[in-house]
Amino acid sequence: MFAPVYFDHNATTPLDPRVLEGMMPYLREQYGNASSRHEYGRAARRAIDEARQRVAYAVGAHPTEVVFTSGGSEANNLFIKGAAACLSPGLAAISAIEHPCVREPAKQLARAGWRLREIAVDDNCRVAGVDFQTVLAEKPAILSVMLANNETGAVQDVADLATQAGSVRAWFHTDAVQAFGKLALDFRALNGAGVHALTLSAHKLGGPKGAGALVVDKRVELQPLVAGGGHERGLRSGTENVAAIVGFGLAAELAVARLDERAQQLAVLRTELETGLVAQGATIFAGAAGRLPNTSYFAFAGIDGETLVGKLDRAGFAVAAGAACSSANPEPSHVLLAMGVESGLARGAVRVSLGADNSASQVRDFLGALNTTILQLKGLQALTS
């Protein structure tokens, strides 16, 4: 089977074999429902409790603050819509670069009587301080600013933003899905600065798909999205996915254990990658911002991103296009447009997101294949112009 080199770790990561090994008993002989009173159920409950402790420890939280969900999208929706349901309609403010699973529930609030405001960012994908102060003057009830952007990798100083927001007494949430496993997270410190909730996902750090969490200050009142048997402190009913939750706990523990070493390794690879990209004439987006160590987002003038991604896939490299392009939605990345990138260049955006198993030789091979592909595409353009 043809297996391209995998450079798309911000989309999902390979399941760590140690995580799979830890999950297997709960897919076979330990099949109990964690709500059951017999030994099978008690074993499942113990496994969930242990996983909750592991996730909590990995992000500096208390286990009672961890609410397991089916993933980051559900956790973001739980906070945005769950908090809003317990408040009088007011202003919800989100950064202009949020993931759709924050943007779309926020738009649902707007259709239900809330006012929605997007906070501007600068050309390096960082929240614009002046506009943030303008938003605060409008007294938002809910604020959501992602910790690290999934496209550019730009990291926000959410602790500082939350401190600034303290005077307006808004519930402050951060989507930390991309940051978890790549940056050190300390919910206790963030909470002390004024961050009330953060979102996590297992499959971004070597865990399984189908498991995530909302880490939330217990003072925040939330209305559950899913009502039923009262699981997860009544905030997320439904029989728990024990195997996935166990895998989440193991993945969190493993990711934190090697965090600094892995970050240094990835930063070295990214530097080599971007040195080669610039030499070939690429524009690096958010290049001057503090970024996740594994993420590079770039474009070549006049080269379509979707076309480039397809050709690179056939050349043996799996990367991601930045634009959400389809026949129904040809618009370029809303993140790049918010940064002020010209739409033509934005349509050329390509993201490389590196992982622990990638090597310097793979990066060099990629740069060679990229150079060949760019020359071919420019040659085709010359023929058709």
Strand order of the largest sheet: 2-8-7-6-5-3-4
In CATH, the homologous superfamily of the largest domain goes by the name Type I PLP-dependent aspartate aminotransferase-like (Major domain)
CATH class of the largest domain: Alpha Beta
The number of distinct helices, counting runs of at least 4 residues, comes to 13
The CATH topology of the largest domain is given as Aspartate Aminotransferase, domain 2
Q: Low-confidence segments, ≥5 residues, pLDDT <50?
A: none
Can you count the beta strands? 13
- Please tell me what the overall shape is: globular
CATH structural architecture of the largest domain: 3-Layer(aba) Sandwich
The secondary-structure class comes to alpha/beta
Count of the domains: 2
Major pleated sheet: 7 strands, mixed
* Distance linking N and C termini: 38 Å
Describe this structure in words.
The chain is of the alpha/beta class and 385 residues long. The protein is built from 13 helices and 13 strands. It has 2 domains: 241 residues, Aspartate Aminotransferase, domain 2 (3-Layer(aba) Sandwich), CATH 3.40.640.10; 126 residues, Aspartate Aminotransferase, domain 1 (Alpha-Beta Complex), CATH 3.90.1150. Helix 9 runs parallel beside helix 13 and helix 10 crosses helix 13. The longest helix has 25 residues.
Q: Keywords, please?
A:
2 domains, 41% helix, alpha/beta, 385 residues, Aspartate Aminotransferase, domain 2, globular, Aspartate Aminotransferase, domain 1
In short:
The protein is an alpha/beta fold and 385 residues long. Helix content is 41%, strand content 13%. The protein has 13 helices and 13 strands.
